[in-house]
Design brief:
Helix content of chain A: 10-25%
Structural class of chain A: mainly beta
Radius of gyration of chain B: 32 Å
Oligomer: heterodimer
Strand content of chain B: 5-15%
Number of helices of chain B: 24
Low-confidence stretches of chain A: 17-23, 117-136
Number of strands of chain A: 13
Number of domains of chain B: 3
CATH superfamily of chain A: Lipoprotein localisation LolA/LolB/LppX
Number of strands of chain B: 9
Number of domains of chain A: 1
Mean pLDDT of chain A: 76
Number of helices of chain A: 4
Mean pLDDT of chain B: 86
CATH class of chain A: Mainly Beta
Order of helices and strands of chain A: HHEEEEEEHEEEEEEEH
Shape of chain B: elongated
Low-confidence stretches of chain B: 364-370
CATH topology of the largest domain in chain B: Multidrug efflux transporter AcrB transmembrane fold
């Protein structure tokens, strides 16, 4: 759950990193493209605190530090809780066929290659699929349609493309006109009941504290709520650095152990 | 009563109009009635195992299970596996199903080059024979799969659907059934598990009622006609119970409760029971010398009204004593049947006289004459002579029978196994046996552990417990997070069997848990909560039969006791359908005792308030107590277990059976107040109310015997037992009660003799 949350947060981050352009009469697709294409920061580093809040309001905290370089290298190190401190997670060739994932477990001083479930399967213990985590945007899986603006924000309806195997049939997305950052995404899944199909809201993602860091806008707080389970996760970013040229040897097995 | 009589006779049309209006109102509310077999309604509300069950439901995504079995000459071929995969995928979308686990739909921990992964057991279904054979070899040699998801002969495979407790069971089952139908042939597909059984029971009961309600009406008509030989004697009692039934079912709808399995028996019950009040009123109407119609009705109402009120109130008390039940369905059964009795009473003292007043024509005295001669009258006459004679064998014989009945008590048993509802050849029982033979059974023993689950010491204890549980014959081998951690440890260490154990440090466990939560979809969701504070060990139980299940639960508790002692580090709770069934059996006994005491106490108080003689009230209770003793004796001797239906018999018998005593005692007191001797009063009471009592008992008993036509052993037993208790309590009222009333005469006689001698 935690890793997925982090990565989703990161995805949002990447989506945000874009120069705000004057909004002419943009089509839905153009808005989506813009909010997506701006993943231009060469490298990123951030500390993240995750608060997992269950339906009884019980909170547990996780802290990680995250680095990325280009589109294909990512590294996560766990800082807390104490019993997982030092666990490292390295992804190379992300989103490609020869994606490699390595896990370092300090309790055993061992690096092991790991592999997630099938692409269509659920990823890392929660409702997000590998696909949603792995891809950098919505463009491949969805076609966008612009709806009437709401509260000074673009509102888009994203429908899943026929050939896509993305988990959700439909997304409703609100995008900030100034920052071109999605501020809210509602994820709907198609359910069938007695032969009739209908859309059921499963998850809601909200982005807050949208701030400009360097050239890029990004939210410093992202909340994801699993509507069905009544469970939510609040991600808070700090110590964010962009285009700060993370050294290449961060993304090696050797560094993973450090 | 007199005021009521005046009112009714003054405004008969108003009464009839109001009755019809209310019937329409309740009739329309009945449209909203929902029938449902919500499993939760049949579970006790407050037992620990049910609370734990609900917690498992919330924390682990569903506590209930439905089992779908594929049977084919060869499971491991492309077509069958593809069907299993497609059906599994479709089942996943059925509302109420939270998770599907099958050969084609489950993950496993696998070693890979330099590492480990959690991946589907079967990713692509191979077409090549060699690959299929290799897959078959692999699963048949892994005790995670064999006997769990594939039978050891490779001819049956199981799809396990994990279900939410909160669901629309009939809708879910019908969707699952139609999906299964789609994939049938050449493979056989069968569905089993408690949700399927509950549904089969529900639809069976519905078809039962469609057949049985007309039958019970016909029976009551025949009895009424034989008794009264007049149209009004048949129509009026029937009209009152018909309306009372509509009003009750309307009430059920108005308070927003659904018709449950037990609730579906309410109409048959009300028709059989409620007709009594009309019978008593009309019997008196026929008995009195016809004078002015208004005067006659006034007399009939004032004379019998109170007796009918008491009869109705006691019957209602018997029913309502079931509110103490922990089972919602039984509780509302008690409330609604009590309402129904109240309605039947109100209609009898208002609608019946109103119609009788407006009824044209008059009876002749001839009819009255003829009625006083008949076989029944003769029997009652000789009974009266026997009782009022010096020596009567009735009491000694009764005592002897009670002693014999007493020997049956130790054999009394309880049963909550739903399989017992069905005959041995039914699909339900056959499916259960198949699942039992080929797999580990369809219900579970669930053990919930709350504590520091990163503590290696604790996990090792749980591992030990699992090993010991496996050895219990009716339990299957569980797969828990303990097993997953051991496998992870082994594969992290290059598949070295030496590492097939729990890691030694809490960091090690924490990091493996993190790995597992990162790697495999919802792989761990059914085993441990995401906060890593609660874990579940779930074993399948081969049988639903109470004796082995009780023994197994006891054994499991002992093992827990020896392994964990009274350690504070971990909280261990037992649940699963097996434990819920066991707890329900204990509750049935508690509820039986509570409702019985309540029913007896309330009924005694009512009789006491009515007659203001403690001894008289006590006398009235004796026949009913004897009836209860005989009832439990018969259940013991004939092996009829205390179950969801038979648990109702005792309180119903108290409420119904007391009526006969009350009717008799009412008439007896009336005669005594007129200054007649005890003997004469008994004789007259027997000759007058004796017949309606017998008709009443007969009609109720026959009404319940209609349940013999049910397809459920459960309802058959219920019908037989009620019929027997009616026979016992009416006999008690007509033979034992007068005997008791004669005691004083006999004592006086004895004293007089002594005095004479002196």
């Amino acid at each position: 759950m935690n890793i997925r949350t982090i990565i989703t947060g990161l995805l949002l981050l990447t989506a945000l990193i874009c120069p705000a352009l004057a909004a002419k009469e943009l089509s839905g697709q153009e808005i989506l493209d813009k909010s997506q294409k701006l993943n231009e920061a060469d490298s990123r580093a951030a500390s993240m605190e995750m608060k997992l809040i269950d339906k009884d309001g019980e909170v547990s905290k996780r802290e990680v530090r995250f680095w990325s370089k280009g589109e294909d290298k990512r590294l996560i190190k766990f800082l807390s809780p104490a019993d997982v401190k030092g666990v490292g997670f390295l992804i190379l060739n992300a989103d490609s066929d020869d994606e490699m994932m390595y896990l370092y477990l300090p309790a055993f001083k061992k690096i092991r290659r790991i592999s997630g479930s099938a692409k269509s399967g659920s990823f890392m213990g929660s409702d997000f699929s590998y696909d949603e985590i792995g891809s950098t945007g919505y463009n491949d899986d969805y076609k966008a349609e612009r709806l009437d603006d709401e509260n000074g924000q673009f509102k888009l309806k994203l429908s899943r493309k026929d050939k896509s195997d993305a988990e959700y049939e439909q997304l409703i997305m609100w995008v900030s006109q100034e920052a071109f950052v999605p501020t809210r995404v509602e994820m709907y899944k198609e359910k069938k009941r007695s032969g009739k199909a209908y859309l059921e809201l499963r998850k809601v993602m909200t982005a807050e504290k949208i701030t400009k860091t360097g050239k890029y806008w990004m939210p410093f707080s992202i909340t994801m709520e699993d509507v069905k389970k009544g469970h939510k996760t609040v991600l808070t970013m700090s110590n964010v650095k962009v285009d700060d040229d993370v050294p290449d040897d961060y993304f090696t097995q050797r560094y993973l152990q450090r | 009563m007199k005021k009521l009589a005046d009112l009714v006779l003054k405004y008969p049309w108003l009464i009839i109009g109001a009755t019809l209006a209310l019937t329409l109102l309740f009739g329309f509310s009945m449209i909203r009635l929902e029938s449902e077999s919500d499993v939760k309604k049949l579970l006790p509300e407050n037992s620990e195992s049910v609370l734990t069950y609900n917690e498992i439901d919330e924390e682990f995504g569903g506590a209930d299970r439905l089992i779908i079995v594929f049977e084919d000459s060869e499971i491991c071929d492309y077509d069958t596996l593809s069907k299993i995969r497609e059906l599994s995928a479709e089942l996943k979308d059925v509302p109420g199903i939270s998770r599907i686990v099958s050969l084609t739909n489950m993950d496993e921990i696998k070693p890979v080059a330099d590492g480990i992964k959690v991946a589907p057991l079967l990713d692509e279904i191979p077409r090549e024979r060699a690959k299929l054979a290799a897959f078959k070899h692999k699963i048949l040699n892994d005790d995670k799969y064999v006997d769990n998801f594939i039978s050891s002969d490779g001819k049956a495979a199981m799809i396990m659907a994990q279900l939410f407790v909160e669901r629309d069971n009939p809708v879910m089952i019908s969707e699952v059934r139609s999906l299964a139908e789609k994939y049938k042939g050449p493979e056989k597909i069968l569905i089993t598990g408690t949700p399927e059984i509950a549904q089969t029971i529900l639809s069976g009961m519905a078809s039962d009622m469609v057949r049985l309600i007309p039958l019970v009406i016909l029976l009551v008509v025949v009895i009424l006609f034989l008794g009264f030989r007049s149209v009004y004697g048949v129509v009026l009692p029937l009209l009152t119970v018909g309306f009372a039934t509509i009003w009750s079912m309307g009430t059920l709808a108005l308070i927003g409760q659904p018709v449950t399995v037990i609730g579906s028996a309410i109409p048959v019950l009300l028709i059989a029971v409620g007709s009594a009040y009309g019978i008593h009123l009309i019997a008196r109407f026929d008995e009195e010398i016809p004078t002015n119609r208004d005067e006659l009705l006034k007399k009939v109402l004032t004379k019998t009204g109170l007796a009918i009120l008491i009869a109705a109130a006691t019957t209602a008390a018997g029913f309502i004593s079931n509110v103490v039940s922990d089972i919602t369905a039984i509780k509302f059964f008690g409330i609604i049947t009590a309402c129904g009795i109240a309605y039947a009473f109100i209609l009898t003292v208002t609608l019946v006289p109103a119609i009788l007043k407006l009824m044209p024509g008059s009876r002749t005295n001839e009819q009255v004459e003829r009625k006083n001669h008949g076989l029944l009258s003769q029997v009652l006459g000789s009974l009266s002579r026997a009782i009022t004679s010096r020596r009567s064998p009735i009491l000694p014989i009764t005592l002897l029978i009670l002693v014999i009945a007493g020997f049956g008590y130790p054999r009394l048993s309880t049963e909550t196994d739903p399989v017992n509802y069905f005959s041995k050849n039914s699909t339900v029982v056959k499916s259960m046996h198949l699942v039992k033979d080929k797999f580990g059974g369809s219900i579970t023993l669930d053990i919930l552990f709350d504590g520091d689950l990163k503590d290696p010491e604790l996990l090792r204890k749980i591992e030990t417990l699992q090993k010991r549980l496996e050895k219990i014959d009716i339990l299957s081998k569980p797969y828990s997070i303990v097993d997953a951690l051991k496998e992870t440890n082994r594969y992290m260490n290059n598949d070295d069997p030496a590492y097939d154990r729990i890691p030694d440090s809490r960091e090690g466990i924490a990091q493996y848990l993190l790995f597992l939560s990162m790697s495999g979809g919802d792989f761990t969701d059914s085993m441990i909560t995401s906060d890593h504070e609660t874990m579940l060990v779930s074993c399948r139980v081969a049988t639903t039969n109470s004796t082995p299940v009780d023994r197994m639960v006891k054994q499991a508790k002992q093992e827990i006791e020896t392994i964990f002692g009274d350690s504070d580090d971990v909280e261990i709770r037992l649940s699963g359908m097996s434990v819920v069934f066991k707890d329900m059996r204990e509750m049935l006994i508690n509820n039986q005792v509570q409702s019985l005491i309540l029913a007896l106490a309330v009924v005694f108080l009512m009789v006491l308030v009515l007659y203001r003689t403690p001894l008289g009230a006590l006398y009235c209770m004796v026949p009913i107590i004897i009836t209860l003793m005989l009832n439990f004796g018969i259940m013991g001797w004939f092996g009829i277990a205390l179950d969801m239906a038979t648990v109702l018999v005792a309180s119903i018998a108290v409420g119904l059976g007391i009526d006969y005593s009350v009717h008799f005692f009412n008439r007896y007191k009336e005669e005594r107040q007129l200054g007649k001797s005890r003997e004469d009063s008994i004789d007259l009471s027997l000759r007058t109310v004796g017949k309606p009592i017998i008709y009443n008992a007969l009609s109720v008993a026959l009404g319940f015997l209609v349940l013999l036509g049910s397809q459920f052993a459960l309802l058959k037993n219920f019908g037989i037992l009620i019929a027997l208790t009616m026979a016992f309590s009416s006999f008690g009222a007509l033979a034992i009660l007068p005997e008791l009333l004669m005691i004083k005469v006999r004592v006086i006689n004895l004293n007089q003799k002594k005095e004479k001698k002196q």
